[in-house]
Design brief:
The protein contains 8 helices and 6 strands, in the order αααββββαβαβααα. The chain is of the alpha/beta class. Strands 1, 2, 3, 4, 5 and 6 form a 6-stranded mixed β-sheet that branches. A hairpin with a 4-residue loop joins strand 3 and strand 4. It starts with a helix and ends in a 23-residue tail after the last helix.
């Protein structure tokens, strides 16, 4: 169920917040002014990123701009979005790429059309990262691995079925199994912070909604996280870390 911002503004903000905001505008004017907040939201969101803990997870999630059955008639994002395919099926819209730390805090994000390869934005998103970056099989690339390794970031992924088995540290295997934490973050973003809905009237309002949702996520009191430090794994020898 999507959050109704119109009902909140007209039924709660306008009647109850007049003392705090004496110059409140009508809801129609409020919607017209929303695009002007985009740049400030982007700047503020960059101040809300988490701490680099040397353990990071990367994933992407589709952001649909309309239902697939209405895509042929959709005009708002004409020329701005593409068709993409994931494990669920085809979707029309964009793709949000995220990097989080083991505490579930946002480290980097990027929005691309839905048909962009998941590996393409990784070098730009990981400029400041060090340590290990855990990803799924979609990120397997020897060239990408070597590029990141040269700057102190090790890309750790599962092997594809047609690849030879390779040795991997036990802690890396454990953390790969914990990679689902970033999928929980995607679920929080969509179902709690509501970064996705299919009734946008302009691309700017779509971006404002996305930035506001990401910012709201950084304020959640409890984020999906994992506890992987040696003190919690007393049975494992220090060498595996």
């Amino acid at each position: 169920m999507q959050f109704d911002i119109q009902a909140l503004y007209t039924l709660h903000v306008l009647p109850s917040w007049r003392e705090a905001f004496p110059n409140l505008v009508s809801y129609t004017r409020f919607v017209e002014l929303m695009p002007w907040s985009l740049m400030l939201l982007c700047c503020f969101l960059h101040t809300r990123t988490g701490e680099i803990t040397e353990i990071s997870f990367i994933d992407s999630t589709p952001i649909n701009v309309c239902h697939n059955c209405r895509a042929h008639a959709h005009k708002v994002f004409k020329g701005l979005v593409k068709w993409g395919k994931n494990s669920v099926g085809w979707h029309n819209g964009s793709k949000l790429h995220l990097i989080i730390n083991d505490c579930g805090e946002l480290l980097a994000f990027k929005l691309t059309p839905a048909n962009v390869d998941d590996r393409k934005p990784v070098p730009d998103m990981t400029e400041d990262l060090v340590g290990k970056l855990f990803a799924n099989r979609r990120y397997v690339s020897q060239k990408l691995f070597e590029e990141l390794y040269k700057r102190g970031l090790e890309l750790v992924t599962k092997s594809k079925k047609n690849m030879k088995n390779r040795l991997m540290k036990l802690i890396d295997k454990i953390l790969l199994r914990k990679r689902a934490v970033i999928e929980s973050v995607n679920d929080h973003l969509k179902n709690i912070c509501q970064i996705e809905h299919s009734r946008h009237r302009s691309p700017f309002n779509f971006l404002v909604n996305l930035m506001a949702g990401l910012t709201a996520y950084t304020y959640l009191p409890k984020k999906p996280s994992i506890d992987i430090y040696p003190k919690d794994l007393p049975a494992l020898p220090p060498a595996i870390f």
